[in-house]
Amino acid sequence: MRRSIYGEDHEAFRETVRAFIARSVAPRAEEFIERRLIDRDVWREAGKQGLLGLEVPEVHGGGEAGDYRFNAVLGEELSHVSAALASGFAIHYDIVAPYLVELTTEEQKRRWLPRFAAGELITAIGMTEPGGGSDLAALATTAVRDGDDWVINGSKTFITNGYQADLVIVAARTSPEKKAKGITLFAVEAGTTGFERGRKLDKVGQPEADTAELFFKDVRVPDANRVGEVDRGFIAMMERLPQERLSCAVSNVAHASAVLDETLAYVKERKAFGQPIGGFQYNKFTLADLVTRLDVSRAYVDQCVEAHARRELSAVDAAKAKLWTSEVQNEVIDACVQLFGGYGYMREYRVARAWMDARVTRIWAGSNEIMREIIGRDLGL
């Protein structure tokens, strides 16, 4: 079925993304896996191609696309290569960008956005904590006002881009007595005294997306680095989580689709008992189910993308998209591993790496249990 959400401009942009991937990413994919990060020269090249500043105003060096469908196109094409590539870049251009564009002062925009769009300032967002997980209201990191500065103490974990980020948006508790209504956001820059990073975390999957623990010990940040209003950080995060969850959904479908395409090609060539294994009824029916599940999932996600482009996507619909697509992605790729047989369990095969990469999508951006809670509450339960 022909997709109707993208026009000529979106498809032209898709070709730009594909050219960037073919030239700067695909030849070095194994290197990124081995080094467990995406090199800075690739970030800068992405910036030159206008891929990182889609939401950044033109006056600050961005493309100011004003259309979330361009973000979705970029997410799809990166996910076709690997979930990790999409994750690392999307944290920057899709997740952090709205905070820096919508909540900052003009002085802050001039200071950060040109380098952000150019790929010279790699960013991350510090929400998750060792003892909190998906419960953002339970933040233990604190920020105490001291004159014109704030002093931050605490830690964050599982932070994508955390190992090489130049700027991290950090959520900290500024009014403990207000609970969720007492959280403020701060931009903490690399090199700030007391801000330290742990090792690159040894994850089951997505090694290319560098992930780290972050530690803050009496980190003094000027009020000029506060992002948004005091004690409004939780609201700011809640307002922007739907875009993060939609970004995950776009990636989930595209990633699973790429792996399924490779699997379809494999089962047509691989023979057993004198015939291609795709011809066996069980395998044929399995693949028919997988293709159908992805097609239906993509149709819903496309509707969500269109709704978000109109600024009409609800938090509940975003939760549904994230929940459903992460479950479907894991089911599809697990079935693909089975169809590859023993080869599907070998790291050298894309399907095995994709299987490991996909598992976290049921956990991050709010666990799927939290997504069900959000949806259930909307039902009045």
Descriptive report:
By secondary structure, this protein is an alpha+beta fold. The chain has eleven helices and ten strands. A hairpin with a 2-residue loop joins strand 9 (271-272) and strand 10. It starts with 7 loop residues before the first helix and ends with a helix.
Q: How do the strands and helices of this protein lay out in sequence?
A:
Elements: H1 8-25, H2 29-35, H3 40-48, H4 68-81, H5 83-102, H6 106-118, E1 123-126, E2 142-146, E3 149-160, E4 167-173, E5 183-189, E6 195-200, E7 211-222, E8 226-227, H7 233-269, E9 271-272, E10 275-276, H8 281-309, H9 315-340, H10 350-358, H11 368-378
Helix pairs in contact: 1-4, 4-5, 4-7, 5-6, 5-7, 7-8, 7-9, 7-10, 8-9, 9-10, 9-11
Relevant terms:
11 helices, alpha+beta, four-stranded antiparallel beta sheet, 381 residues, 10 strands, globular
Mean pLDDT: 96
Q: What is the CA-atom radius of gyration, in angstroms?
A: 21 Å
Low-confidence stretches: none
Number of helices: 11
| DSSP E strands, number | 10
Largest sheet: 4 strands, mixed
Order of helices and strands: HHHHHHEEEEEEEEHEEHHHH
Query: Order of strands in the sheet with the most strands?
Result: 1-4-5-8
